Every structure is written in C-alpha cells, then in structure tokens.
Structure of Monoamine oxidase:
Amino acid sequence: MPKQTQIDADVVIVGAGLSGMIAARTVLAAGLTPVVLEADERVGGRILTEEVIPGVPVELGAQWIGDTHERMFRLAAELGVETYPQFDDGETSYDLVGSGVLRESEFHARFAEELAELERVLRRLDELATEVPVDAPWSAPEAAQWDSITAGAWYDAQGLSQVARTLLEICTVGILAVPTAEVSFLHLLFTIQTCGVTSELFAESEGGAQTTRFVGGTVEIPRRLAALIADRIMLKVPVQLIEHSADSVTVHCRGGLIARGRRVIVAISPTLAGRIMYDPPLPGMRDQLTQRVPNGSAMKAFFVYDEPFWRTDGFNGQLISDVGPARMSNDTCIPGDNHGVILMFLEGEQARSFGRLPEEDRRAALTAELVRHYGGKAAHPEFYVDGEWSDRQWTRGCYNANLGPHVWTAYGPALSAPIGVIHWASTDTATYWSAYMEGAVDAGERAAREVVVALTD
Ligand SMILES: Cc1cc2nc3c(=O)[nH]c(=O)nc-3n(C[C@H](O)[C@H](O)[C@H](O)COP(=O)(O)OP(=O)(O)OC[C@H]3O[C@@H](n4cnc5c(N)ncnc54)[C@H](O)[C@@H]3O)c2cc1C
C-alpha cells in the first residue's frame, strides 16, 4: 500500500499474522473494507521460513498441520499450496532417567509398564478434558478445583514412575513451551479439548498435529494470502494507541499513520494487546487479564547435513531425551532434496537457559546431543541455524499464551469478548486448536463474523 498519513476503512485490523489476514479476507468477502496494520517489515508473524541453502527451506516458526486441521487444509488448497507427509519411518532414539541411549524397540521392551502407566494417565486426561467447554472453560463443573492447581501438581499426584512422569512432562512442555509447574491444570484440559484428545496433540503419525508440511515452506500460506489483500496491508506501522467510541475507532501507529474505522480487530497475542494504549482505558478485568497471559519460550535449531545418515541406521530422526539442551527432535528433510535436515526443539526451561548462551555454545551442546544419539557423522553439519522468539519485539515468545492458576476462572471471559467496537483475534483466543495455525484461522474468522454481524445487521 502507498505511504499515507491517514486511511479510512470499515474495519481496522491490528497484525498481519494468519489470524489478522484471515479476518481481513473474511470482512472483505462480506463487502466491508479492511485495512491491516502490521508492525513488522513482513507478514506472517509466528510463521517464518528461511531458505538456508537453495531448495532447503527451514521453518523457524510454524511447520506442521495435522489431519483435523480442516481450515488449514482448505486454505492451502484454495491458495494452491501443496502439502506432503512428515517423514516417519524408523525408530525414535530415547535417553531418559539415566537409561542411556536406547532405540525405540529396546526402550519399549524395557519400560513397557511405565508406558502403560502413561497411557492410563493420557486416557484420564482425555476424559476430564471432555468436561471443559472450550468457549467457557471457567464453567466446567470442577473449574475452581482444576484452576487452583498446576498441571504439574496434578501429574505429581498420579503416583507415576519417574520414566512415565518425565515422558509426560516432555510431551506437555512440547506443546505448551513452559514447565507444567507454571500452567493451570484447567488450562491444560482446555488445550486438550480444543484439539480433541491427547493423542491428537502428542502423536506425530496418523491423527497427530504434525503429520503434514507445505511444499515451499509454511511461509507460502501467509505470502499468498497477503497477495490477495495486498492493497489493504500496511507494513512497518506498529499500533500504539486505539481511541474508541460507541461507533468508531481511530488507530494511531508509530510514524504518524492514523487509521479510522467503525470497528477494530486486534489480532495479536493478549500480552502484546495489553501493551497498546486504549482511550478510554479498557475495563480493569481486561487489563488484569492481559497482565496474566505470558507467552511460552521455544527455540528451533536446524542442522543441515549432506545426507540423512540416521535413516540408513533405521532411525526416524526423532529423539526423546532428558539429557542436554533438546528434549525432542525431528527429521525435517525436504522431499526431492538430498540434504539431511534435523530439527531440535528447545522448549520451556531449555529455551530459557540454552537460549541465553552464545550461539556457538548452544550449537556445540546440541551437536554433542546428536552425536550421542546418531553417531560421529552428526558432528559435521554443513549448516546450522536457530531461531529465538522471546527477543522478537512483535512476538515476545511462543508458541502461545498459557494461563497459570486462577486466571481462567477469575478473568477468562475477558479473553475474547468484544469491548464496544474492539474485537479480539489471534490463535490465543481460539476455541479450536488454540495455539496452532488452525486456531489462528478459527479466531480470525470468529472475530470477522462478530464485526460483520455488527456492521451489516
Ligand atoms: C517456533 C514456532 C513453532 C510453531 N509450530 C507450529 C506448528 O508446527 N503448527 C502450527 O499449527 N502452529 C505452530 N506454531 C504456532 C503458529 O505459528 C501460530 O499459532 C500462528 O501463526 C499464530 O498466528 P496469529 O495471527 O494468531 O499471531 P501472530 O503470528 O503472532 O501474528 C500477529 C502479528 O501482529 C503483529 N504485531 C504485533 N504487535 C503489533 C502492533 N502493536 N501493531 C501492529 N502489528 C503488531 C506481529 O508482527 C505479527 O505479524 C508455531 C509457532 C512458533 C513460534
């Protein structure tokens, strides 16, 4: 969009992540004019693909979709972005609770009882999650009790063996990106319920959240979406102040741009939404909420080799470990390209501690971990890159906002309920696959529907 100092639209949208752009497209389809104000110099927010070597895009942000991510499959098809299945042949490598490095078959044979314990707890979590209404978790029959303890405290009370408890922690931190001691048990159940069942969340193979990738990289989704509404998006215009009345908004950006509209959709994480000024000020409930919705901490680190040598040894590239900086890894090779690409996840405590180290120290610690699991060939990557999200001014952590004890029950309704002419989107406000791209689309569509109803009825 050309540089302007004032712009008029029906709907002003803050943030050109997936949620904001979906909201823009939806209001446009309803015959209303949107304008999207994006702080960064690019669209896509928590989606960030980097082509480190020609033909080898790596995903520093969102990477996968799963079988029940219907909106994302539909969107990809509509935008002409092809998908391919995540590689999943071979064995996972384990090193847990002092077991030393074990292949999956050895690990399963040695810890069959512990894995059965884990399975029982997961089934119990699934049962309890069904009692949590996704659009009002605070109204679950046992909401007060579940919101008064952390997920970690509930796990500790299950009398699990150390192996089962450690695996449960790793799986959960793998989705929340914070230690379970920091998250309300009600929030965990809500997260499970927005996704269906724990097997959807934790599994990588059939039915999980990580079955499918995008040809060319996830960035193709926001890139092509932005092309459809390019004349309605402005980059490098951080929103600082939203003035609102009964029937209008005036949105002020750094640099002097002013956007006027009849409604505004704030499509950024609640923590960042709380850093915008509002005039008149928002109700205390909303501000108290945004003081209590921290984003998690996660980093992805990619090692690119001349070939995927672990496959030859019968490994699938996944590791699960409580030793070293990464708790999990994935084979993220690109079909049709010969390079071997391994992704290591640093989440929660690991992102906080190793994320602060100089890159070379972090890389050395991760390399040592790969060598322990996959042998000496892992010591010589052609390329290394990692991505930190807490330092990014317009994200400030990931994967999403997690609610600690007492927040859902005390402040939950303030998360997504519109305040006058102000509406809230972003995946953090979704009721289906909250925290995921699917949730970003769900929330963007919901906020746009609210606005369309208000402006066209
Ligand atoms: C490392 C990582 C891995 C992930 N892996 C997956 C995965 O495999 N699968 C999956 O489904 N999801 C994954 N996710 C989550 C997924 O990326 C998000 O759910 C989704 O992209 C969120 O979209 P959004 O539009 O809600 O928010 P965002 O992407 O955060 O978009 C918000 C936008 O608002 C902008 N903004 C912020 N403040 C302002 C301001 N004041 N003024 C104007 N603009 C502002 C930001 O720059 C950003 O562009 C991952 C995320 C990360 C970071």
